[in-house]
UniProtKB/TrEMBL annotation:
Pfam families the UniProt entry points to: Sdh_cyt
GO biological process, one term: tricarboxylic acid cycle
Example GO molecular function: metal ion binding
One Gene Ontology cellular component annotation held by this UniProt entry: plasma membrane
Name this polypeptide is given: Succinate dehydrogenase cytochrome b556 subunit
Pathway info: Carbohydrate metabolism; tricarboxylic acid cycle
Task performed by this protein: Membrane-anchoring subunit of succinate dehydrogenase (SDH).
Key words, A-Z: Cell inner membrane, Cell membrane, Electron transport, Heme, Iron, Membrane, Metal-binding, Transmembrane, Transmembrane helix, Transport, Tricarboxylic acid cycle
Predominant cellular place of this UniProt entry's protein: membrane
Membrane-topology annotation of the record: Multi-pass membrane protein
Family: Belongs to the cytochrome b560 family.
Cellular location(s): Cell inner membrane
Needed co-factor(s): heme
Amino acid sequence: MWALFMVRNVKKQRPVNLDLQTIRFPITAIASILHRVSGVITFVAVGILLWLLGTSLSSPEGFLTAASIMDSFFVKFIMWGILTALAYHVVVGIRHLMMDFGYLDETLEAGKRSAKISFVITVVLSLLARSPRMVSNASALGRNGVHDFILVRATAIVLTLYIIYMVGFFATTGEISWEVWTGFFASGFTKVFTLLALVSILIHAWIGMWQVLTDYVKPLALRLVLQLAIVVALVAYVLYGFVVVWGV
């Protein structure tokens, strides 16, 4: 009853500033917006990366095909963009985790400082990812906000560990051949870890995309259509990823 009373008495005509030239986002807002943008880019990139992985693991010829695709300057540039978006999403995600656990103060000054540090770290990682070796080898519906909060943090930790695992493989391996590549993914541990990382990134993406649609897509019908499309894409990612990884 109290909620209904508040809804009925909320001010209907709120001031709206539509002059974009007068809007100045603080650096913390820019960091938050870019975090969502990088999440959307990463979600779309999952399909591209799964296809490349499936092609490279299919046969020696498929491995050479994937390698030749990766030799293209345009593809390298796209991969660099994907790695940059992923790096930024992970860095800012770690920033949020540190705030959650009390290692960073939740004040305006601390937020500005940590946002600037996140930008600097992302630039450094982006420049490292630009190296040829790295690029070539590389609607509520009963939802629970607490569950989403926990799942986002847990899946972020799993993804961070998997990235460290893959970076370790690339760093400790010389020239990657078909035998080395398939042998790595033929390991039971790598298979399970890869599938766990895939499920984690899809859960992370689902929650993030749901929040983006809820915040920015106001027509309910359009939002439901987009959510359905995302569900179809997630199911396709899971099925294709399982076939690719477990079939090695």
